[in-house]
Design brief:
Layout lengths: L1 H24 L4 H22 L4 H19 L2
Helix pairs in contact: 1-2, 1-3
Length: about 80
């Protein structure tokens, strides 16, 4: 279950960054594509590093709880 939550949190964060990048540089530009590839590699590396630390489970639970509170309570 923890792996499933981790993938969704990492995917959501990367998706937000990709949307920001597309808005800043345009959707079809080559620069945007290279930035997205670089960010994907960076996020994958950070994920692999954090996965081996003791804080990973706590961080995933906090981010999951925060997104649940936002989606169900704060967003109207």
């Amino acid at each position: 279950m923890e792996d499933f939550l981790a993938i969704t949190v990492v995917g959501a964060l990367l998706s937000a960054v990709v949307e920001f990048t597309k808005g800043m540089f345009g959707e079809g530009s080559t620069k945007t594509k290279f930035i997205v590839i670089g960010l994907s590699i960076l996020v994958g590396g950070i994920y692999a590093f954090l996965r081996s630390t003791e804080y990973w489970t706590t961080m995933i639970m906090v981010l999951t709880s925060a997104s649940t509170v936002y989606a169900l309570i704060l967003r109207k």
